[in-house]
Amino acid sequence: MTKAPNWVEEVSTFRDKDSLLKEYAAQRKDRMGDALNDYLNDDKVSARQAYEEMLSEAIEWRDYHQKQLAKAQQFIDLCHPNRAESYSSLDLLD
Questions:
Q1: How far apart are CA 16 and CA 5, in angstroms?
Q2: Angle CA(34)–CA(39)–CA(41) in degrees, nearest 5?
Q3: CA distance 36 to 70
Q4: DSSP 3-state of 43
Q5: Reported pTM
Q6: How many Cα atoms occupy the beta-carbon half-sphere of 71 within 13 Å?
Q7: Between 79 and 1, whose confidence is greater?
Q8: Residue 76 belongs to what H/E stretch?
Q9: Cα–Cα distance list, 37 to 42, 50, 62, 71 (Å)
Q10: CA 88/CA 18 separation, integer angstroms
Q11: Can you tell me the distance from the alpha carbon of 26 to that of 22, in angstroms, rounded to the nearest whole number?
């Protein structure tokens, strides 16, 4: 008999999907807290630097996803070359 991987045992301890999502949300918040702690407890980092670096990271994520969206749109346009208008992300939800 094969033993289940460790992550299976960990996941099976959760009662349901909601419990798993709540636990993940708590862990995510803890990771953010750890990052803030790292910035704010470093005497060499000003509050302004912490703010600017966090904002810079959010802007990088936004830019990355805009590029990925444009790439996906180009792909969809290639799949439907005779369609005059482009599909928007909302068109796909209908």
A1: 19
A2: 90
A3: 32
A4: coil
A5: 0.60
A6: 6
A7: 79
A8: helix 47-79
A9: 8, 10, 24, 37
A10: 31
A11: 6
